[in-house]
Amino acid sequence: MKSLLRKMIPGFAVGWYHFSLAFLGAFLFGFPSKRLTVVGVTGTNGKSTVVDFISRILEASGQKTASASSIRFKIGREEIPNSLKMTMPGRFKLQKFLKKALKEGCRFAVLEVTSEGIKQSRHKFIDFKAAVFTNLTPEHIESHGGFENYKKAKGKLFSSCKKIHVINSDDPNAEYFLSFPAEKKVEYRFEDIGKYQPFDFKLLGKFNIYNALAALAVGSALGLDGKTSKKALEKVDVIPGRMEEVVSSPFKAVVDYAHTPDSLKKVYEALKSERGRMICVLGSCGGGRDKWKRPEMGKIAGSFCDKIILTNEDPYEEPPLKILEDIEKGVSDSSIVEKILDRREAIKKALSIARENDTVIVTGKGCEPWMCVGKGKKIPWSDKEIILEEIKKI
Q1: Dihedral of the CA atoms 317, 321, 324, 330 (nearest 10)?
Q2: Which of 113, 250, 281, 341 has CA 20 to 30 A from 334's CA?
Q3: Which tens digits make up the pLDDT trace of 218-237?
Q4: Are the C-beta atoms of 357 and 274 separated by less than 8 Å?
Q5: In terms of Cα–Cα distance, which of 169, 137, 172 is closest to 263?
Q6: Of 351, 254, 267, 273, the residue nearest 309 (C-alpha)
Q7: Averaged over 343-359, what is the pLDDT?
Q8: Domains of the chain, CATH where assigned
Q9: 166-199 pLDDT, tens per residue?
Q10: What value does the mean pLDDT of the chain take?
Q11: What is the per-residue pLDDT for 90?
Q12: How far is it, in rounded angstroms, from Cα 115 to Cα 48?
């Protein structure tokens, strides 16, 4: 019904349609965010992890907290996986979530805020007390009509939040996000990690250090105890679907959500070892989305991986083989590439050829519970479970 209604709305009125729905959703649920301290996290990569880290810091500080990300929806101790195939829920779902959080006694809510969500006014009528910027690299370029429009969409979170801004000042786009007025601005940079030493942080990758620093900066801006915040992050040993080590011996098998060129490169850099080979299973989203990034991801895989197995990710209505061919165009040495459309078979092949000290890395879906194929069909999916199932057969 909603999709039919949207098709009937003329282009010039689409913005008003989304804005009206945002107001209606907030009105029906009593504008719950006004009685919560809401933290919004935006950027290209790291949003879900930063949401998780901030929530852990708040909980360790004795604050009952709600959070919503591409990984899960959590209110206090109750949590459910995000199975919507939508990082930022629709306006009614989001306002209902905030109302429930308030009813359950939460004082804080931490939300992952996407450019697509902002484009559809899902952030409107949410009283953000703090806005967090992680980083910015090209994504959703076709949808937004260019990188500058994508950046401006992210900027709308900061223009709507007047209280606290937390900015990664190492990012080349930091100056833009720092230009928005706020009562308090907190910058973080990689060298700040020295302030927290010794820091027994268990997650791999420089990017995870940045994610931790973002969360610690938020804790500081909210007046939380720094030692408590640090201890909360030192307890983290895994984030579902983010650099998640599923098999440890005799070789490693790792699942990660990396679905942009920048995130893929960072994952490969963190996992590259001289001791063994890197066997990479990857694909790219279909549906006509961000086609530009396919050969870029192939180029990155070609520079890091000893063996590349291209496979389905979420083809939607697009011919799956065409997506894989687009990725392969970026690989300079096609002899290391194998195309296996069936994602289970691709994972099985990668595991079967792995030897001691090798690393099998399966990217693109992380902990997503569905694969989206043609005719609007969604297939139940779990890269982690399939690895565990197939490893038993080998």
Answers
A1: -110
A2: 250
A3: 999 999 999 999 999 999 99
A4: no
A5: 137
A6: 351
A7: 97
A8: 2-234 (3.40.1190.10), 244-393 (3.90.190.20)
A9: 999 999 999 999 999 999 999 999 999 999 999 9
A10: 93
A11: 84
A12: 14
Q: How far does the chain reach from its first CA to its final CA, in angstroms?
A: 48
The separation between CA 390 and the C-alpha centre of its own chain, rounded to angstroms, equals 26
**What percentage of the chain carries pLDDT values higher than 70?**
96
Q: What is the arrangement of strands in the sheet containing 359-363, beginning at the earlier edge strand?
A: 244-247, 252-256, 359-363, 278-282, 307-310, 337-339
Q: Kindly state the tokens that stand for 69.
A: 């990300």
Residue 7 has pLDDT above 80, yes or no: no
Tens-place pLDDT, residues 248-301: 999 999 999 999 999 999 999 999 987 899 999 999 999 877 899 999 999 999
pLDDT of residue 1: 42
